Amino acid sequence: MGAVTGSVGETLAAIVGASRMQEGAAVDGTFAVDGVLPRWGVRVQTLEHVSRVLALAWEAGLAVVPRGSGAGQELGAPPSNVDIVLDLRGLDQVVEYNPDDLTITVQAGVTAGALTARLVPRRQFLPLDPPAAEARTLGGITATNATGPLRLRYGTMRDLLLGVKFIQADGVVTWGGARVVKSVSGYDVPKLMVGALGSLGVIGELTLRLHPLPDAEQTWLIPCRDAATAQEFVLRLLDSTVQPSRVELLNAPALAACGAPGSAAAVAVSVGTAEAAVKAQGEALGGLGRAVGSAAARPAQGFWSRYAAALVPAQCVELGVATLASKVGEAIGEIERAVAASLSGVAPTIGGSAPLGSLRVVLPPAEPARVKSIVERLRAALAPAGGGVTVRRAPRDVRVAVDPWGPVETGAFALMRSLKEEFDARRVLNPGRFVGGL
Amino acid sequence: MPLSPGVVTELQRILGPEGLVLSHEGRLVYECDMHTFYKGAPDAVALPSTSAEVVAIVRLCRRAAVPIVPRGSGTGLIGGAMAPSGGVMVGLNRMNRILEVDLENRCATVQPGLINLSLTKAVEARGWFFAPDPSSQMVSSIGGNVSTNAGGPHCLKYGITTNHVLGLELVTGTGELVTLGGKVADRQGYDLTGVVVGSEGTFGLVTAITVRLVHAAQAVKTILASFTDIEDASEAVSAIIAAGIIPAALEMLDELMIRAINEGTGAGYPKDAAAVLLIELDGPAAEVEAQGERAARICWERGALEVRVAKDNDERALLWKGRKEAAGAVGRLAPTYLLQDAVVPRSKLPAIMRELREIGVRHGVQIANVFHAGDGNLHPLILYDDRIPEELERAKAANEELLHACIEMGGTITGEHGVGLDKAKNLPLQYADADLNFMYRLRGVFDPDRLMNPGKLLPAHPACGEGFHPPRPRLPQGAWI
C-alpha cells in the first residue's frame, strides 16, 4: 500500500495544509485511539475540510475516527480499523448567537467551557453537565450523548439540539432540523446524531436551545440509612410539587469522595428558581426528609464539582447502569453484590439520577475477566425490568473482553443495521465501535 | 385502482365483518382530515383491534403493493390522514386502551387511538398529567400526536410530543413489529423512537406508545395584558423571556382577532386593544408569585393598557375562553380561512407582524392572528370567502408569500401541525437537495417499498427519488485515484 499511502497523504495535505497533517511514523501520540496510531492524523479547520477528507476516505475505503477533546474515546468497542483520525477541535467558531431567541449555533469543536463563557454575561446557559464538561467539545458531548445531573430538569442533548449540520460518510454536507426553538418540518434528523458516536455522519455544526440561568440555587443532602430508603425519599419527592433541578443518589464511597458526612446512602437535591421559591422548596424538602426519618442538610460549597470529580477518577472502569426509578434501591444492592463477588475488598462508587434510574458505577482498573463477570451478572439481573449495563469507560482490553453496549432488541437492531448500511455502506465512520459492531 | 377481490377477501378474514368499511358512503367519511381542501377516499378502511391485525394488514398490502394510510381521529390540519392514491386506510380508533399507568416511574403506556385528554383524565386525580396539549386534545388521538409531533400552548415550557415519548411499538413498512425505546431512560443504539415521532405515518404504524407523565404544579397564575400596539406586546414577550422567565404558555391575539372574539361570546377584552397577551405561569407557588409580578411589571413598562391577573380558576378559564374560541370566532369575519403554522425566531415577531400586514394589503385579504408568541409559532388565519373563486386564489398567494417571509427570517414552515400533503411542496424552501435526499433515504430504511402514507411529508422532487446523488466535494488534482 506504500504508493497509495503516499498519495493519500499528499491529498490530505492539499486539503488541510501540510502543517495540519501527519503521516505514518510521524503521527504523534495525541492521535492514538485505544493505543493504536492511525496512518494519518488530520486537524481540520473548516467544514469544507471535513467534507473533502471524508470524500477521499470514501473513495479510498479508509476508516475515519472523528474526535473532539478525546474525553469519550473509551466509550464503545475498540474501532475495527483506524486509518485517519480527524481532530475536530479546530472547528471552534460560534456561528450565530441569538440571546433573545435563546438559541446559539456553534461549530462542533467549541468546548462547553467556551460556550459557558459566551453565555454567562447574558445569564443564559446550556444545561448539560457531564463530568469535566468544560474541556469537552459540544460535538463530542452530542456524539456520546453525555449527560449529568441537570438532565432531570432539562433533558439530554436529545431535547436541546434543534438543528445539526453533519457530513455524511461520502463527504456530502447535510443539514437537519431547524434554527428555531419549535419545528416539525421534515423528519427529526438531529435525533439520529445524538449518541450515534459519529457513525452516521461527522457532526460539524449544532444549533442549540439555551435556558435562562436561575436567579438562585441551593443544594441539600438527605442522608439515608440505606439505598432503599433513599429510593423511597426520591419517589416521595417526585410525587410532590417540588421541582428540583438535580436529584442524585450517592452510596457511601461516593459520599466519601465528595467529602460529605458518612452515611450508607444519601440523596443530593438542588433547586434553582426565584429566591423566595428556593427557600420554600427547601422547607418542603425538609418535610419530605423527615417522613423517611432523615434530616436535610446543606453540603459545603462546591458540592457538584466534587461530585463530578468523584465520578471521573484518572483511571477507572465506569459502568452505566440503566434501570427504573422504582428499582434503583434494588439495583444498587445488585451492583454491590456483583462487585463483591468478583473483586473482593472493592467497594464501587455509585452515583446517578435516581428519578431516571440512570446510575454511574466507578470501579478501580481491574482484570477484564472480572469486569466481564460483573457486567454479565448485572445484565442478567436487570434485563427482566428492561434495564441494562454499558461500559462507558474502560481500558481497551476490558472493552475487548466484554461487549460495552450489551444486547439491543432484535427488531430495533435490524433497523439500526439498515441505517448504517444505507448511510455508510463502506464503513468509513468509526467502524466497529457502535452497538453490535456497527 | 380498486382493491382486487383477493385483497378484500383477505382483509375481511383478518378483520372480521365489523372491522372493514367498504361501502362508498362509509369510505367518504374518511376522505379528508380537518384540512378539507385535500380529498381522497381510501378503497377500504380497516379498523384493527390488535397489533397482530395491523401486522397482517401491512404484510398483505405490501404483497399486493397497496398503499396504506394511517388515521387517528382525523383532526390533523395538513392533509395527512387522507388517501390521495387510494389504498387501505388503517383507522386506529379501536385501539384506544391505556395499557399501563406507572406513576412511580412517571410514565404510561397507551394504544394509539387513545384520546389525548383521556390520559390526563385518568391520572389527574392523583396529581399528574400528560403535557402535550394541542387545541384538539379533546378529540385528537395520542397516535396522531406522535405522528405529527404535535405541540400546543403549553409546549413552550414542557416541550412538544417528542420530548414526552419514551418508547414505541412500531409496525414498519415491511410488516415487522418492533419495540423501540421503553420505560428505562438510558438506551443503547440509535434514537429510533426520536426519528419515528413526527414521521407522519411514512415509516409505519405505531401500535403502542410509552409516554412520560408530568406532576401537576403547585400553583398556576394566568395574566392577561392588553396593548394598543402589537409591537409593544411583541417586545414584552422578548423582555419576559430575557428576564429568565419561561412561562407555561405565552399566547398573543391581534386586533382583528380581538374584535372577532369580542363580537362573539365576549371574553371582554379591552375594546381599544390592538394586541392581547395571555401569560400563564405554573410551578411552585412562590416561584409563580415572583415571576408573575415580574411579568406584569414588564407588561406595564412596555405600555400595557391593562394587566389582569386571574384570581381563581373561574377567572382563569374566562381569560382563556377567548383564546380557545379564536378559530371559531373568525367565522364572524369571513366564511372560511387558510390556517398557517410557520415559525420565526421569537425576536423577529415585530418584523413579521409588519410584514404580515403588508402581505394582507398587497393581496387584498384580511389576516387575523392568534399565536404561540413564546416560541415564535405563528397561526395567521387568512380570511376569504369560498363563494368567490378569486378570493381563494388571493388567499393562497398571501399564504405562500407569508411562508417565504418566515423562512427568510430564519424560521421554519411548520411549528406543530406537520407537513402532510399540504406542505410537502414547501419542504425544499427549508432544505437543500442533500438534506431532502437524506430524508428520502431515511424513509426507505423503515419503508423500502414506500407504501406507507405515500405523497405525505416528502415532496415530489428530484432529490426525493431513486438514483439521485447530491454533488460530492471535489478532491484536489492528482488525488490518489
Describe the structure in your own words.
The complex is a heterodimer of chains A (438) and B (481). With 438 residues, chain A is α+β, with helices and mostly antiparallel strands. Chain A folds into four domains: 2-87, 2-Layer Sandwich (Uridine Diphospho-n-acetylenolpyruvylglucosamine Reductase, domain 2); 94-212, Uridine Diphospho-n-acetylenolpyruvylglucosamine Reductase, domain 3; 216-307, Alpha-Beta Plaits, CATH 3.30.70; 312-398, Alpha-Beta Plaits (2-Layer Sandwich), CATH 3.30.70. Helix content of chain A is 34%, strand content 22%. Chain A has helices spanning 2-16, 47-60, 112-119, 138-144, 151-154, 157-160, 190-193, 227-238, 252-257, 275-291, 303-310, 328-342, 368-382, 396-401, 410-423; strands spanning 21-23, 40-43, 64-67, 84-87, 94-98, 103-107, 124-125, 161-167, 173-177, 202-209, 211-212, 216-224, 246-251, 265-273, 317-322, 349-353, 358-363, 388-393. In chain A, strands 12-14-13-16-17-15-18 form a seven-stranded antiparallel sheet. Chain A has a five-stranded antiparallel sheet with strand order 5-6-10-8-9. Chain A has a four-stranded mixed sheet with strand order 1-2-4-3, covered by helices on one side. Chain A is globular and about 70 Å long. Chain B folds into five domains: 5-91, Uridine Diphospho-n-acetylenolpyruvylglucosamine Reductase, domain 2 (2-Layer Sandwich), CATH 3.30.43.10; 98-215, 2-Layer Sandwich (Uridine Diphospho-n-acetylenolpyruvylglucosamine Reductase, domain 3), CATH 3.30.465; 217-330, Alpha-Beta Plaits; 334-418, Alpha-Beta Plaits; 425-464, no CATH class. Chain B has helices at 5-15, 24-28, 51-64, 116-123, 142-148, 155-158, 192-196, 230-242, 255-263, 285-301, 313-324, 326-329, 349-363, 389-408, 427-430, 433-446; strands at residues 20-21, 44-46, 68-71, 88-91, 98-102, 107-110, 128-129, 165-172, 177-181, 204-212, 214-215, 219-227, 249-254, 275-283, 306-309, 336-339, 367-372, 380-384. Chain B is globular. Classes of the chains: A alpha+beta (438), B alpha+beta (481). At the A-B interface, α1, α2, β9, β11 and α10 of A face β9, α7, α8, α10 and α16 of B.
